[in-house]
Amino acid sequence: MTDQEFRAAADALSITLSDEQAALFYRYEALLRTWSGRVRLVSRGDRDRIRERHFIDSLRLTLFLRRGKISLLDLGSGAGFPGVPVKIARPDVTVVLLESARMKGLFLNHLAGELNLDGLSVLTDRAEAACERPEHRGRYDIVTARAVGSLPVLWRLAAGFLRKDGELLALKGPGALCEAAEFGSDGPDVSITSMAAGRRHGNRMLVRVSARRE
């Protein structure tokens, strides 16, 4: 995907990237390539399509974020998806990248330092432990996740981080419908939006999960 194609794909999501924002994505891509030789951040087959497979896919989440001040926790952030692309596109969102793996945490800290974005921080810890800290429990408007466990597991991990009216936004494959059915009738509120992602990636689903309102 060329620079022009990347910016056009972002435009299609109603995201007009400035030259500075585009440069941040290109720096991010370069760091992913450099670090992927020693840390498994993206698969070998994805290294030549990072922009399409990871950046644009992550940016789809911005369609579901309200305007204004938002606090967001990226659960199991890994290589920074979707949290870092969202932060670049939406500088007004405060983002915490939560990752339990030490080496991936080192990459994320290096990335945050290189991009130098206000309101972007890294927490290297297990979700279960981080959730018990008073500075994180019940503090976030949004928890995001991408390719991290089934929906019931994600919700169990995410719920403790969320404010009363917060929600989990998860990017999933077509299996999301079956995973959502596992909640049962007494589970949280769930809505699923299908998003075309091209023949190579199959159908993508944006799943929104929030506590059931009485």
Give a short synopsis of this structure.
The protein is α/β, with parallel strands linked by helices and about 210 residues long. Helix content is about 35%, strand content about 25%. The chain has a single domain, classed as Vaccinia Virus protein VP39 (Rossmann fold, 3-Layer(aba) Sandwich).
Give the topology, please.
Layout: H1 3-12, H2 19-35, H3 50-59, E1 70-75, H4 83-89, E2 93-99, H5 102-115, E3 120-124, H6 127-130, E4 140-146, H7 151-158, E5 162-172, H8 176-181, E6 189-195, E7 204-210
Parallel strand pairs: 1-2, 1-4, 2-3, 4-5
Antiparallel strand pairs: 5-7, 6-7
Helix pairs in contact: 2-5, 3-4
Describe the structure.
- α2 (19-35) runs antiparallel to α5 and α3 packs across α4 (83-89).
- The chain has a seven-stranded mixed sheet with strand order 3-2-1-4-5-7-6, sandwiched between helices.
- The chain has 214 residues and is an alpha/beta fold.
- The protein starts with a helix and ends with a strand.
- The chain has a single domain (3-210), classed as Rossmann fold.
- The mean pLDDT is 92.
- It has helices at 3-12, 19-35, 50-59, 83-89, 102-115, 127-130, 151-158, 176-181, and strands at residues 70-75, 93-99, 120-124, 140-146, 162-172, 189-195, 204-210.
- The longest helix has 17 residues, at 19-35.
- It contains eight helices and seven strands; from the N terminus they run αααβαβαβαβαβαββ.
List keywords for this structure.
214 residues, alpha/beta, Rossmann fold, seven-stranded mixed β-sheet, 8 helices, 36% helix
